[in-house]
Design goal:
Blueprint lengths: L1 E3 L6 H21 L1 H6 L20 E7 L4 H5 L16 H9 L1 E7 L6 H10 L22 H4 L2 E6 L4 H5 L7 E5 L12 H18 L3 H7 L4 E7 L1 H9 L4 H25 L4 E6 L15 H4 E8 L31 E2 L3 H9 L28 H29 L7 H4 L1 E2 L2 E2 H14 L3 H23 L3 H20 L11 H25 L3 H31 L4 H20 L5 H18 L2 H6 L1 H16 L11 H23 L6 H28 L6 H20 L7 H13 L1 H4 L5 H23 L24 H18 L24 H29 L6 H9 L1 H10 L6 H31 L4 E3 L7
Parallel strand pairs: 2-6, 2-7, 3-9, 4-5, 4-6
Antiparallel strand pairs: 1-12, 3-8, 7-8, 10-11
Helix pairs in contact: 1-35, 8-11, 10-11, 14-16, 14-17, 16-17, 18-20, 18-33, 18-34, 19-20, 21-31, 21-34, 22-24, 24-30, 25-26, 25-28, 25-30, 26-27, 26-28, 27-28, 28-30, 28-32, 30-32, 31-32, 31-33, 31-35, 32-35, 34-35
């Protein structure tokens, strides 16, 4: 007898869909909690401006080489793999650092993207981490910048960066020259973008000879020139940093800097220009950025010109470490800064007000170390600049302090700045002391006091920005625990409803708690998200107390399990979840998981009769797990390999051919076979197109337009095929293979190496999992081949302890579907080379969509496989997933508590990535099951005969 997988119209199905929808909304909303808790926007308004009355130079030239790594700029023979590589790749910039300027490393923060990096350099502040998701070309909030404080800024470069500094600035204050977005073509020579910037600057100076207004603007004081050089970022994405293309682009940047100096010198004929050369972020060795990898956070900094000191001998102890010793510059002082420190440095050089939201610290505020300045007035000027730094930070702190004090209930001020000294706050007394020291000519002491007070101000700012952290953490943890409790209700047997009086008491308590929090939030003017955060746990725990606790008591009373057994099972579950947490940083654990699932589990728990009767299935299962478990052990840093891509395509074709051969012996309707042949033909066509595109791109001949059109057509046609086809599949395996072949083209055109092989192994492993679980659940009804007699599927669900194991296996497959393709738990671990076969011109959202599509494809197979497994075990739709749903947030809570905004940027970036990835994967798992039940809804399944408890 045959049965249909599900009936989505029944009432239980509707309740499950309601639970899934609520779970998705809950998890998506609570992803934002990590930013409300750990990374809030630093932007406030209403501060007074402070700055030095007179600058050291009349004008400033800021050159930002987008995506330039510090080590590849400074290290001699850094590109020794190339026969044509010079010993010094950037001789002009190196000569500046060695002979007439100051150099160091500018340390960026996550996310290491162009937009937040430029905000830190030019605005002196670190944006809310989540702002990177709000667009590359617009501002989530208006912020102040050194450009806005200049008399005029002339900027040249990318349309992705320049407009955001013109927006919100005074009218005609920031003038921009941008090339077209179409010019950002990853398949072409990106040095043309940098040369374009140079040509526009040259044209600007030439136009000034005939335009008196422009000439007057250019020759005024406090003028800034901003040159954004995007070539290195584009080249690094396309060819990776350790390539001769990246090397040549560094040489091009070096030539641009040399030419800019000559142009400025010829036009002005003076020595009143200061220069700052840096990068917004670095780049990982696989050609990506975004996370806290040290290669992404360490960028070069070179300053020279008017007002900037020359090179100094190295200090004792040495300013160099293992990172910079290969530069062969250990005889010179390396002066590192934080990226936001560049804004006050630039503002000081040309004597403008500092950006009002700046949290940068002038490198010269520390009297014990040399900074970057060489002011005409010497130590006195440095002391006065240090006082300006203190006033800017204090103003920033004061505005936030007054906002918090005006609204927070039981507000506790920051004691280090607010405790009373002689009847006035300590901050005021400290500023008075610094002013007195300056008046007395004690410059060293004034700088020392300024440094101490600036550190206290930054601590005070952090205190205020994290003031509500403990409360948010508590709400989030209670919410996640509440979700687990709420989900468990669906697993427990129904019981007699509570009495009306007791139910009213629970409802009243929940309402009182909710309104109490809302009132407190309203008084404190808390963000709107706080109201939403607290609503979820109130609802979850109300439902659990009303329905869950009575059901739990009944379940415990009727159960034969001992507390020792329950504790042992709970320990196993927690250990499994925490092992998956640990696997985010130790990918080999995924391989160990396959050994446990494929070998230890069957060999240690199956009766010997099962092993002897089903040795073929067991052998296939063990072999499949071992093969699939190899992929997490492979190196993450892969080179583009056309043979591996074609091998993956060949294996996918082989699987399709074997299925067609076996099904052709039993199926009378040949439409399914014709459909399979068409799908395999599309795979072959994509293999041919991809081979041509890869060879063309590797030869730097660009992406042929015909190849691009053909690739898009094949990808779209194949992906739509199983959804548009009216073929009736005789079995779930047939339909799963249809989906497998449909998305195989994605793993041809978007693969860089062995992803297609993993996709094939993963699919085969899931198909065998279905058979193994069906055997384990119904051993008394199965014969040696695992076939079964007929039986109607169950319409009700009763929880089994073994369902927890299946749910853990499911969560394991959810994680492996992501990590098995070579990704690591990082937002910059995705390869962009395959995307250029479809999108050669910079389009971040379309490129991200393609990467997400590639991630989604294995989950389509998991969804239909899990739905089939659910039916093979005679369970109502979503039954097994409900068990998994109660376990999912064991990982999420761990990652949430592990998020940090202190320590190295690698640690910060990874902690954010881990939480976001696990949250999104677990949210996605809900969609997996819903999609699987829908996609397999019309497919008949051989049902088993044993009665379900």
């Amino acid at each position: 007898m045959k049965c249909v997988l599900n009936d989505m119209a029944n009432a239980p199905g509707q309740n499950v869909l309601k639970l899934l929808a609520l779970g998705i909304v809950f998890h998506v909303i609570f992803i934002a909690s990590v930013f409300d808790c750990y990374f809030t926007s630093p932007v406030v308004h209403g501060m007074n401006h402070y700055g030095s009355a007179h600058g050291e130079a009349k004008r400033l030239v800021l050159i930002v080489a987008d995506g330039l790594r510090a080590d590849l700029l400074f290290t001699p023979n850094g590109f020794a793999f190339s026969e044509s590589s010079p010993t010094v790749v950037a001789p002009h910039l190196r000569s500046i650092a060695e002979e007439r300027g100051a150099f160091g490393v500018s340390h960026t923060r996550v996310p290491t993207e162009s937009r937040p990096g430029h905000v830190a350099i030019i605005g002196g502040m670190y944006e809310d981490v989540s702002a990177v998701t709000k667009g590359w070309k617009t501002n989530p909030v208006d912020f102040d910048s050194v450009f806005n404080q200049s008399s005029r800024t002339f900027s040249f470069g990318s349309p992705d960066i320049l407009p955001m500094f013109a927006q919100g600035a005074s009218p005609d204050k920031v003038l921009t020259w941008c090339y077209d977005e179409e010019a950002e073509d990853f398949t072409k020579d990106a040095t043309a973008l940098d040369n374009w910037v140079l040509d526009k600057l040259r044209a600007l100076f030439q136009n000034a000879s005939t335009d008196t207004t422009l000439n007057s603007q250019l020759r005024g004081d406090k003028v800034i020139f901003f040159l954004h050089l995007l070539g290195l970022d584009t080249t690094g994405h396309a060819y990776r940093p350790f390539s001769k293309e990246y090397m040549r682009n560094i040489q091009a940047v070096d030539n641009v800097v040399d030419d800019v100096e000559n142009l400025v010198s010829q036009f002005y004929g003076d020595r009143e220009t200061s220069y700052v050369f840096t990068a917004d972020h670095g780049m990982s060795k696989i050609g990506n950025h975004g996370d806290g990898d040290p290669d992404n956070t360490r960028t070069p900094l070179i300053a020279w010109g008017k007002g900037v000191r020359g090179p100094l001998p190295d200090s004792t102890p040495s300013s160099h470490d293992v990172y910079s010793k290969p530069w062969n510059m250990t005889h010179l002082l390396r002066r590192d800064v934080s990226q936001a420190d560049l804004a006050p440095l630039m503002a000081t050089l040309i004597g403008i007000n500092w950006p009002s939201n700046s949290v940068g610290v002038l490198p010269d505020i520390d009297p014990t170390r040399a900074g970057y300045l060489a002011p005409l007035e010497g130590e006195e000027a440095l002391a006065r600049y240090s006082l300006v730094n203190v006033k800017v930070l204090l103003e920033h702190y004061l505005v936030k302090h007054e906002m918090k004090a005006a609204h927070a209930i039981f507000y506790k001020p920051f004691d280090l700045l607010e405790r009373k000294e002689l009847g006035v706050p300590a901050r005021m007394q400290k500023v008075t002391t610094i002013e007195r020291l300056i008046a007395e000519g004690k410059w060293y002491d004034a700088r020392r006091y300024s440094m101490e007070l600036s550190e206290a101000c930054l601590q005070g700012l952090r205190y205020l920005e994290t003031y509500d952290r403990l409360l948010i953490r508590a709400i989030v943890i209670v919410a996640y625990l509440g979700w687990a409790a709420y989900t468990s209700i669906s697993l427990l047997p129904p019981v007699t409803p509570l009495s009306a009086s007791r139910k009213r008491a629970i409802d009243a308590a929940a309402i009182v708690v909710l309104l109490g929090f809302w009132a407190a939030f309203w008084v404190q003017k808390s963000p709107g998200t706080f109201y939403v955060y607290v609503a979820f746990p109130c609802y979850f725990w109300r439902e659990f107390y009303s329905r869950g606790i009575p059901a739990l008591r009944r379940c415990v009373s009727e159960s034969s399990l001992t507390y020792r057994t329950l504790f042992a099972q709970l320990t196993v579950v927690i250990s499994a979840l925490q092992s998956m947490v640990l696997a985010y940083t130790h990918r080999s654990i995924w391989s160990v998981g396959f050994v446990v699932v494929g070998l230890l589990w069957p060999l240690s728990t199956w009766p010997s009769s099962w092993l002897s009767q089903n040795w073929k299935l067991l052998g296939l299962w063990c072999g499949s797990c071992i093969v699939t478990g190899v992929f997490p052990l492979l190196a993450v840093d892969k080179e583009e390999s056309l043979p591996s891509i074609l091998a993956g395509g060949g294996v996918m074709l082989l699987i399709g051919a074997l299925h067609l051969y076996r099904s052709g012996q039993n199926v009378v309707d040949k439409s399914m076979q014709r459909s399979g042949v068409v799908q395999m033909g599309l795979i072959v066509a994509m293999m041919l197109v991809t081979s041509s595109s890869v060879m063309s791109l590797q030869a730097k001949a660009g992406l042929p337009r015909l190849n691009q059109i053909a690739a898009w057509f094949i990808l779209a046609s194949s992906s739509v095929c199983p959804f548009a086809s009216k073929v009736r599949h005789p079995s779930p395996t047939s339909k799963i293979i249809s989906f497998f072949l449909a998305f195989a083209v994605c793993f041809v055109v978007l693969s860089i190496s062995v992803e297609g092989l993993f996709y094939s192994a993963y699919t085969c492993n899931l198909l065998l999992w279905i058979e193994v679980e069906a055997l384990v659940r119904k051993p008394d009804a199965a014969n040696g081949n695992g076939t079964v007699t007929d039986q109607q599927p169950s319409i009700s669900y009763r929880f089994r302890v073994d369902d927890i194991r299946i749910a853990l296996f499911f969560l394991f497959y959810v994680q492996v579907g992501f990590f098995g393709t070579g990704n690591v738990a990082s937002i910059s671990s995705f390869y962009l080379e395959p995307v250029y076969r479809l999108v050669p011109i910079f389009n971040p959202f379309l490129m991200a969509a393609l990467l997400i599509f590639k991630i989604v494809c294995p989950y389509v197979i998991l969804s239909v496989a899990f739905a089939t497994l659910n039916a093979r075990l005679h369970l109502p739709p979503f039954s097994l997933f409900l068990v998994a749903l109660a376990l999912t947030d064991g990982m999420t809570m761990t990652f949430f508590l592990n998020v940090t905004d202190t320590g190295s940027w690698l640690e910060i970036g990874q902690s954010i990535s881990f939480f976001c990835i696990t949250s999104l994967l677990l949210v996605w798992s809900a969609g997996i099951c819903a999609a699987g039940e829908y996609l397999m809804g019309d497919t008949p399944v051989d049902c088993k005969s044993t009665k379900v408890d």
